[in-house]
Every structure is written in C-alpha cells, then in structure tokens.
Amino acid sequence: MAEKFIVLPYRKVRGNLVPGEMRQASNAVSAEKIAGAMASRFAGVAAYAVEVDEESGDMTSPRLLAQWGDR
C-alpha cells in the first residue's frame, strides 16, 4: 500500500453535490494548495490522503486534509 494525495472538486447538479474529475498531488501541502486554488470555480473542493493498493489501484482509508465550499 502507498499513500497518495488527491483533490476532488464538486459541482452542484439539481441541488446535489456531484464529484468531478479527481486530480493527484505530490504531497499533502500540494493537495491543499491545489484545492484552495480550485475553490472559487467549484461548489466545493476537498483534498484527501488515501491508501492505494499498487496492484489493483483500489483506494481505501480516505483522510480529509482540507475542504472548501458546500458540504
């Protein structure tokens, strides 16, 4: 298992938050900076640290690093 850092933007669709395209970051600080920079363009943005199985690509154990916007 390897720790990866991802940023997930959210858009509002018919009153509901819908996840957009995930972006990968090189570290936790970078993930938070990317999320902050994206915040003005989306209803919400969250930065996470996740455990990734190198063989299957499955992501587990998400840990919220930072969030902006609607919840």
Report on the architecture of this protein.
There is one protein chain. With 71 residues, the chain is α+β, with helices and mostly antiparallel strands. It has one domain. 15% of the residues lie in helices and 55% in strands. The chain is built from 1 helix and 5 strands. Strands 1, 2, 3, 4 and 5 form a 5-stranded antiparallel sheet that branches. It is globular, with a radius of gyration of 12 Å.
Annotation keywords:
single chain; 71 residues; alpha+beta; 5-stranded antiparallel sheet; 1 helix
Quick summary:
With 71 residues, this protein is α+β, with helices and mostly antiparallel strands.
Total discrete domains: 1
Average pLDDT, to the nearest integer?
95
Largest sheet at a glance? 5 strands, antiparallel
Number of DSSP E strands: 5
Q: What best-fitting shape do the alpha-carbon axes yield?
A: globular
Task: Please provide the ordered H/E string of secondary-structure elements.
Answer: EEEHEE
Distance linking N and C termini: 29 Å
Helix content: 10-25%
Helices, by number, come to 1
